[in-house]
Every structure is written in C-alpha cells, then in structure tokens.
Amino acid sequence: MEKPVHIMVVEDDDDINRLLCSVLRKSGYVPQPAYSGTEALLYLEKQKWNMILLDLMLPGLSGEELLNRIGKYGSIPVLILSAKEERQTKIDMLRTGADDYITKPFDIEEVSARIDSHLRRYRRVPTPAENQLLKHKNAILDLDAKKVTVGGSPLSLTAREYDILALLMTSPKKLFTKANVFESVWDEAFIGGEENTINVHVSNLRSKLSKADPGEEYIETIWGMGYRLKA
C-alpha cells in the first residue's frame, strides 16, 4: 500500500485555498490548508511534507520569508502560486529555493499537471541497485534519506538542487547537456527557453557547495555543452 502524499496549501484567499485542496483530493493527495506563513511553520514542525504550494502575499510571515525557512526541514518541492508577475521576483524565488513559479490567475488543470510532474520527478531520482550512498570528494549523498553532507556537515538543498546533484553523482564521469538535466530533473521536454532556469539552480548548487567546502570545486561547466562533476 502506497504512503499518502501530504501537500500543504499556503494561501490566504479562502476560495483559492479550497479550490486547490479540492483538486488535490480528487488527485488522491492529502491536502492541508494553511492561511498564513506562521500557521504553515507550525505544520512544518509537526510532520514531513511531500510538497508545498505557496502564495507570496501572506499575512504576518510573508511567502518569501517562509521559503527561506523551508529548506531547514529537508528537500521539499515548493511551487509558488502568486499574482506577482515581475521577472525579477520569479528569478529571486527560484534562487531562494522554489522549484516552480506559476502566476495568477492560473489554469487549474495546468497546476494539477505540474504538481503530478514534480511529484513523479521527485520520486524518480536515479538510484543505484546496491549502494545508496554516493560519494564525491568530501560530499556524501544519501539516496534513502535524501540528505547531503559535505565534510560531515549537513548541506541544505532545495529539491531541485538535490536532484541535480544526485543526477551528476550517479554518473560522475558523464557530461550532461542542459537538455539532459532539464528532462531528468524537471521531467518535461526541453524546448530551449528553460536555460536560464537551469543556470539559476546549478549556480545556487555550486555556490552552496563552494561555501561548504571552499577548497574544492564540485561542478564543472563545459561551455556550449553542459555540466559534469569536477574530477
């Protein structure tokens, strides 16, 4: 029997929150409505979550502030649903840790499809048949616990960053094109307009690894081709 999939809906608009929860129930998921960032924090401390749908304009603790704190609770996919359409806001949220950004008003079927896609991708991180610990230089990635340590200290990664690192560490000698990365991690066809999104996530991942282990370089960019682990 499959474990229930718990998804928190952090949205202060009662109608939108009810609509999203209804769609999630019809898809077989277990939704939990939260109407403020502070309420969402309480739920985060109570149990593990498979995904969070997050509005940015919340009473009290804002969505941006909440996003900064979610990483402390593990690699949880976060989908932003916001009326803020500014390009810089989208880039900032992706850099902070969001896995996707959907502007309001949204098409509910598209939101449902993206939720399904993210959950499929999150469950399908490549795993070797025997060893569930991947090691490269001073980094250890635990595929079972979905955790990363560098030099023995835990490294806080978003779900996207974790999946990119897992992809690279599973095939340490392989050169991954941006199309490879996008289609493996995002579980969608690569058209070409997604390059900036990939660049942002890889840049964030590289920065976190560099801060955790300043003496080592973990990800190598082969210009015009893609990425691979630095030997």
TrEMBL record:
Source superkingdom: Bacteria
Main localization of the protein described in the UniProt heading: cytoplasm
A Gene Ontology cellular-component term: protein-DNA complex
Annotated positions of the 4-aspartylphosphate modification: 55
DNA-binding region coordinates: 131-231
Pfam family name, one: Trans_reg_C
Example GO biological process: regulation of DNA-templated transcription
One MF annotation (Gene Ontology) recorded for this entry: phosphorelay response regulator activity
Keyword Transcription listed: yes
Domain OmpR/PhoB-type: 131-231
UniProt name for this protein: Response regulator transcription factor
